[in-house]
Amino acid sequence: MTICFFGIYDPEYSRNSILMKGLRQNGLEVIECNATQGKVKKYFSLVAKHWKIRKKYDVMVVAFPGYQAIILAKLFSRKPLILDAFFSIYDSEVLDRKITGSKTIAAYYYWFLDWLACSLADKVTLDTWAHINYFLELFPLKKEKFIRVLLGADDQIIKPRPAPVRDYYLAHFHGIATPLQGVGYIMEAARLLNGENIKFNLVGNKIRRQAGAPEAGGNINFIKTLPYRELIDIMTQADVCLGIFGDSKKTQVVIPNKVYEALAAGKAVITADTPAARELLTDDVDCLFCRAGDARDLADKIRQLKNDGDQRHLIAANGYQLFTANLTPKKVTSGLAEFIKKYKSQRP
What is the pLDDT of the chain when averaged over all its residues? Predict the structure, then answer.
């Protein structure tokens, strides 16, 4: 069976790369129909490329970001359509980042675009049950339309490495300064831990400027955005990796890439205690939870793992075992692959 991976997606982006790799590892052939050059031209290019392969696949997966691409998919393909929604643009722009006012034309447009994209798809994939339930709160859709596909991480790129020997304890975070991520809480935790021989690597061009916080007395090392493999190299040098800590609704419903990547690297993870995280992780077994939006609790948990090396190593080992058993590309896409095979065979 052949899958057409379709859209204006970045094939190197973790979500897209893992889906394609995992589906191939589960015995499906994946061909790509992708265009990224030009604001409007890419859509014409996408249609032209699809015309050449229109008879060569059985099921189409519209990759992230697929809000506009699925409209073309519906117009030009008669094959089953699966949309990897990944997240709601309405939630991201209006509710989480609050870049757009809730009563503006742009906000209504984003809501309509999310709803239309999901409505046009035969099935929609999201990363957690909590995220699926959140979509059902935002949009008039049926739960049967959705499939959960965890994000996972690439075990061929990320492998466990021991932290180097040094005279201080190192916490790592990579991302951007959005409400979801809660970088401000990490910086406040760093301030609370200043003087305790704990340093922080914060990786991302926009973190320092967007967070608008001082360097917490010099125990924060701001690092520019790095190519993915260099980022993984930096991450594997840490003693503990940090997830997300925001107090927005979106924090409650997603498990970010960085958590899966830390598990794959065999690192102890601290992240906010949320319904989404509890779908996968167990507190004090394969991660350490802290209260969302609580810098002091985060600081306490970082200190706890610094002072208890045995607990830190056990959590890291259990997290890696969880990853290898459930979160490699083949594992996270196995259910989707089986669904595709059965779904296609049931269609006339």
Answer: 94
Q: Is the pLDDT of residue 216 over 60?
A: no
DSSP states of 303-325 as a string? Answer: HHHHH-HHHHHHHHHHHHHHHHH
Beta-strand pair 198-203/169-174: parallel
Tell me the H-state helices in the chain.
Answer: 14-25, 41-53, 69-76, 89-90, 105-120, 129-138, 183-192, 207-211, 228-235, 249-253, 257-264, 275-280, 295-307, 309-326, 329-332, 334-346
- Would you call the peptide bond into 65 cis, given omega within 30 degrees of 0 as the criterion? yes
Domains of the chain, start order: 2-152+328-346 (3.40.50.2000), 169-326 (3.40.50.2000)
What are the Cα distances from residue 298, in Å, to 54, 60, 270, 304? 52, 43, 8, 10
- Count H helices, E strands: the chain? 16, 12
pLDDT in the model for residue 211: 57
Over residues 92-112, the mean pLDDT reads 94
pLDDT of residue 210: 64
